[in-house]
């Protein structure tokens, strides 16, 4: 029986640092990512792909705000849906072309996905999710004064606007995804962490303004789909201890216990590798395999020859 993998694509798969978010740049990167995912399809896995949307949803929100004198402004959950739609469109098209090139017969389908969060999540009072483009410290101060944006320094790369990022509690559409997987379809779902929604006391759902972390959603999706493997594809080949120091050490296959020990020691930076390792540990604790590796080594890592693999041994 084919194994099932949920793949969370890191920012680089869509837009590289310092690149402008033009259609051409994003399409070019997505095409290259699709070719690498097609390699995984050759390994006979059922594949679900999720992806980030930080730069894109920030830009859509900004477009809305700048044009509000002419066109009604949409809330952040609608911007999230828009980003999921356009990235999904580019990814589905690119994947279809890559599969065709490889003479593979699988279909590809994008599901506009809603993710339930709690309205009481403390994240609503503490925005931490960076979106949109980078600014200098001076620009950030000005934007914060003029527009009331909450700005934060993002991993030494500059300042970005931040919005609330609640924990995903339940991802919608999982039964349909399972059916599609059984019909030889690669499913793109939960893009941008999914459109954030809350459920009220009488069971009705409605959108809420936030951006959910795609690695957290990826892990939740992998759990709900009972996937064998959860993979986070990023811009480093491996997770390291003492990262960036002369004594940095590459992690290959490690136990959950060891990973937890390193996490507690603060080896993995908040806002980048930290949340990825937390998601990996949570998933591996259920007796499954979590992998963190670079996009170009994804197929090798799945076969056990590359990346950092976290297992419950
Ligand atoms: N211990 C570590 N090992 C490897 N990378 C780390 C570590 N701590 C922080 N990082 C950083 O994490 C980054 C990946 O996280 P992030 O930028 O959030 O990924 P993505 O956008 O691909 O989801 C790497 O580029 C690296 O600079
Ligand atoms: N939604 C999300 O996690 O996007 P990024 O990965 O682009 O930050």
UniProtKB/TrEMBL annotation:
CDD domains: AAK_CK. It comes from the Bacteria. It catalyses: hydrogencarbonate + NH4(+) + ATP = carbamoyl phosphate + ADP + H2O + H(+). Pfam families: AA_kinase. This is Carbamate kinase. Pathway: Metabolic intermediate metabolism; carbamoyl phosphate degradation; CO(2) and NH(3) from carbamoyl phosphate: step 1/1. NCBIfam families: arcC (TIGR00746), PRK12352.1 (NF009007), PRK12354.1 (NF009008). GO terms for molecular function: carbamate kinase activity. Belongs to the carbamate kinase family. Transmembrane segments: none annotated. SUPFAM superfamilies: Carbamate kinase-like. One of its GO terms (biological process) is L-arginine deiminase pathway.
């Amino acid at each position: 029986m084919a194994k099932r993998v949920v793949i969370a694509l890191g920012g680089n798969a869509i837009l590289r640092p310092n690149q402008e978010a033009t259609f051409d740049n994003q399409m070019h990167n997505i095409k290259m990512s699709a070719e690498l995912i097609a390699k995984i399809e050759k390994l006979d896995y059922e594949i679900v792909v999720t992806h980030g949307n930080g730069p894109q949803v920030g830009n859509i929100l900004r477009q809305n705000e700048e044009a509000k004198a002419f066109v009604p402004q949409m809330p952040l959950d609608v911007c999230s849906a828009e980003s999921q739609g356009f990235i999904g469109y580019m990814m589905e098209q690119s994947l279809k072309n890559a599969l065709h090139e490889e003479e593979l017969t699988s279909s590809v389908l994008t599901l506009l996905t809603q993710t339930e969060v709690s309205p009481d999540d403390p994240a609503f009072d503490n925005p931490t999710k960076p979106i949109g483009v980078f600014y200098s410290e001076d620009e950030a101060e000005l934007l914060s004064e003029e527009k009331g944006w909450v700005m934060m320094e993002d991993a030494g790369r500059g300042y970005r606007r931040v919005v609330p990022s609640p924990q995903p509690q339940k991802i919608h559409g999982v039964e349909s995804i399972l059916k599609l997987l059984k019909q030889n379809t690669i499913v793109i779902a939960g893009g941008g962490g999914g459109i954030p929604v809350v459920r009220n006391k009488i069971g009705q759902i409605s959108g809420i303004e936030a951006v959910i972390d795609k690695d957290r959603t990826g892990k939740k999706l992998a759990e709900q789909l009972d996937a064998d493997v959860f993979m986070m594809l990023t811009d480093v080949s491996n997770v390291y201890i003492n990262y960036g120091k002369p004594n940095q050490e590459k992690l290959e296959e490690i136990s959950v216990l060891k990973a937890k020990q390193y996490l507690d020691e603060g080896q993995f930076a908040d806002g980048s590798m930290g949340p990825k390792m937390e998601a990996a540990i949570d998933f591996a604790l259920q007796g499954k395999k979590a992998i963190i590796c670079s996009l170009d080594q994804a197929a090798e890592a799945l076969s056990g020859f590359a990346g950092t693999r976290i297992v419950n041994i």
